[in-house]
Amino acid sequence: MFIGILLDKSVFSNLFVQLNSYLRENNLQDHIVLQNINSIHLTLYYLDSRLLKEEKEKIQLFVDRLRKDLQNLKLNITSFNYFYDQGKQSLCYFECNNERLIKVNKILKLNFPNSVLENTYSFVPHITLFKIKDYSFFKKHKKNLEKILIAFSKRMGSRNIFKSVNIFKVDSTKEPELQIPS
Fold first, then answer.
1. How many domains does the chain have?
2. Range of the structural domain that residue 34 is part of
């Protein structure tokens, strides 16, 4: 479970069609896995799925207030980047550099310090695009994939992609994994 921002998936439809076509044309589906377009989101804070009912109710009340506070949030893409694992690019994402989201993450940490699963990374407001399962295949296609991302970013400009704040549940039985707003 996590608290996140549901995004306007219609904005990303053409991008995901292009990326999916490229992956299929080059037989890369087993090596690079796209985020599920139906689950496009920005994670604000991870929650432990073993929370007590009272903790879940407290979190829900907080999210309801947060939803009102952020209802006019302007959220847009600033660039794309990668997370690394053992020195290799392992996940591609769009950055959404928004100081307000960083503050929200800090407030969530203060209010729910025992709720989060252990996470050693600094919070980076981002939208996952794809996971890189096999770096050697990705490396050969990196420039072409990045051209698609750059073209999309330029077309996007400062378009707002924010829809709402939600608590999400995760269905890991699906591939790609499905994150479902509740």
1. 1
2. 2-181
